[in-house]
């Protein structure tokens, strides 16, 4: 994943939690994957710090909140260091209610009394720049209201107990699969790791509290609780250094621009799912992708943090046919079978680009499913600048590569759910995801359409087909105004990052096999040199991914 950021604009969009997850009219609680004929979501206008003025709107809540949720806003301010992000504390929830329509009687959020099975919760929608509010209504049954012919309203029965979005997972979810290490008993933080991190914070920045006093605070907290709480400054610094330390990332030049969404108060899987969708919305910005990380509750000896089992927030399902062939992404067959076994319905017929639900594990070790609303998944339909037939292949790819299953460790504290994204490199989609034999394996089809001789690899048909596939990806993202880096420019930027790190007296570990692009490697400057070996003990860092 490429994680290079745009130059700061005059009015940067705030990296903040978005509104509670909602769906457009007619979208059922049960996740129904889109067909290849569905139109891609339109790019929304860029959000600025000034709240947009929108007409009053009402919508049906499809995601009941699991207990009280506090709204926290992380506002971005101009700057390049860790101080560039200001974390604003929990906001008082707005409990003003909008009356429910007569077709679906039931209490509004203001008087969250127990609801009947067909109750409908109606909440006012606000502009993207407005303060986020969340309503505590753990017992409200959810009903999807769909428009019917003639303007009538049809009420669908509330989802069964279990997952509050999909209804899958009775009794609160499913236990962790056999063989997976017990993650419900995290270890206490090593005081030495905490001290090492704090000394790095004070060596590179200038916090107000003296180091000696901060060390005393942290040691005392670890003695009492087995863990300590990072300040907002420490969290922002730690997340950015973890990116700077990522040996496999070619896009580290702008590590200081990473936007941090501080949601450490959220533990419940429903809340994590809601704000994971919020992460996609905050990072997408109508195509002007922003490097973003959302940090959820950390592990603690008395209470483990949540875990997102998906390797990315947006992944396409892999459906295995009886003959062994796969429709969709072969790398996701195992995960797809897992969520189908938990109750997620496959599309009929199965499609090549069915968005998978989120699988999130809570503190009790049980996993629950949550679908990703279609309007939160920004996708680009692929076409070629010279070959009209390419568009008829029906290919597309999502815009935000948000890694979600790699725990983040900062100063001995582990945040098991900390999804983060940069933006795509052209070869990542065109030369790997769509081209690898164990992924979509499209090179034979592209070569056939191009009229290439595929009888021997010596005709270089694979190379020629790959170039045209990457061209199509780059052209399509550019035409749609979606941020994407190319492998030539990104290679030059990485060497600039390397020079800056060396000038600062820091080592810059890099994994050559990941830094060198998978296409035209020798034509990029990163190919012709060696790098410092990756250090597995370097911290802060993103750790090995969770297993499903």
UniProtKB/TrEMBL annotation:
Keywords: Heme, Iron, Metal-binding, Oxidoreductase. Gene3D superfamilies: Nitric Oxide Synthase, Chain A, domain 1, Nitric Oxide Synthase, Chain A, domain 3, Nitric Oxide Synthase,Heme Domain,Chain A domain 2. GO terms for molecular function: metal ion binding; nitric-oxide synthase activity. GO terms for biological process: nitric oxide biosynthetic process. Residues 1-56, 73-115, 166-186 are annotated as: Disordered. PROSITE patterns: NOS. PANTHER family: NITRIC OXIDE SYNTHASE, NITRIC OXIDE SYNTHASE OXYGENASE. This is Nitric oxide synthase oxygenase. It comes from Pseudonocardia autotrophica.
